[in-house]
Amino acid sequence: xxxxxxxxxxxxxxxxxxxxxxxxxxxxxxxxxxxxxxxxxxxxxxxxxxxxxxxxxxxxxxxxxxxxxxxxxxxxxxxxxxxxxxxxxxxxxxxxxxxxxxxxxxxxxxxxxxxxxxxxxxxxxxxxxxxxxxxxxxxxxxxxxxxxxxxxxxxxxxxxxxxxxxxxxxxxxxxxxxxxxxxxxxxxxxxxxxxxxxxxxxxxxxxxxxxxxxxxxxxxxxxxxxxxxxxxxxxxxxxxxxxxxxxxxxxxxxxxxxxxxxxxxxxxxxxxxxxxxxxxxxxx
Length: 284
Ligand SMILES: Nc1ncnc2c1ncn2[C@@H]1O[C@H](COP(=O)(O)OP(=O)(O)OP(=O)(O)O)[C@@H](O)[C@H]1O
Ligand SMILES: [Mg+2]
Known about the structure:
Blueprint: H1 3-27, E1 29-36, H2 44-57, E2 62-66, H3 74-77, E3 86-88, E4 91-93, E5 95-96, E6 102-105, H4 121-133, E7 140-146, H5 153-161, E8 167-172, H6 176-191, E9 196-207, E10 214-215, H7 222-229, E11 234-240, H8 242-250, H9 254-257, H10 262-283
Parallel strand pairs: 1-7, 1-8, 2-6, 2-7, 8-9, 9-11
Antiparallel strand pairs: 3-4, 5-6, 9-10
């Protein structure tokens, strides 16, 4: 064997070892759900954080894997910016956020908030594999995975590394361009054989705080129409609320800070539908 074949062989063995470890770690996690979208900025990370908090408030042990390598935003939204991951003999420990939510993000490994990650696909796949194998997630009821927009390297890596994933949640906004990209996200999940938990229509109308009138900023009903057309469950609409953005920036979970708002109520109804989906799945 020449040295090049030897190093390829070493690499293969290393990856096999990691994948064995990954299997052991993942067996301790009852449910795994990824949050995807065709388009950027539609609220995936916001949905991930608020659903994680909803599950955690209801007694579930929850983890979040921030698989957005280039634009990690979960730590900031949960007030964990600047945290570092602790290393012990069994592996690397997640950071602990509100309600005991265990969080892992590339952000915890960067020298500062402004450092970009400049990586191609294979490196991103390696990082995600490491997040799933080296992190001591422990026993969890639910791992939510926040992904970057589109159907690129990160969602593909997750689909390959977690073939037993419970499903994906697709987030969209109601406008027409967004509906077209929803079709791509649905077809992506179908091509990879990932169950679709359902579609969420975020930024769906704005309720005027003064007069209560509803203003459809990005049109309305597109997500539900698309869900019907593609025969996918519709999980609900979350109205625009400026406090969603303010709370994200302050690192406070919106559904806790503004629990009586219509948007929080929408989140809680969506939480119940996802809980039902996961319970049904467990019975099968
Ligand atoms: N329902 C809402 N009402 C008001 N603001 C919202 C709502 N949902 C999300 N936002 C705001 O919109 C912006 C984009 O949301 P977020 O970062 O969650 O989207 P994303 O899909 O994760 O984006 P990216 O594609 O960049 O990962 C954030 O500033 C967030 O606070
Ligand atoms: Mg995001």
